[in-house]
Fold this protein.
Amino acid sequence: MNKILFLFLAYTFIWTALFIFLLSIARKLTFMQKQIKQLKQNTEN
């Protein structure tokens, strides 16, 4: 049973790390899209 617990904890850690990584990428992408939109508006003026 100890091996199963270790396996469960390893999978939990990996999925949590992956979720946090993807969340950070999504936040950066949103920020970059806002900056691009603002730059486009500034160049139109």
About this structure: The chain has one helix and no strands. The chain has one domain: 1-45. The chain has a mean pLDDT of 95. Residues 1-45 form one domain.
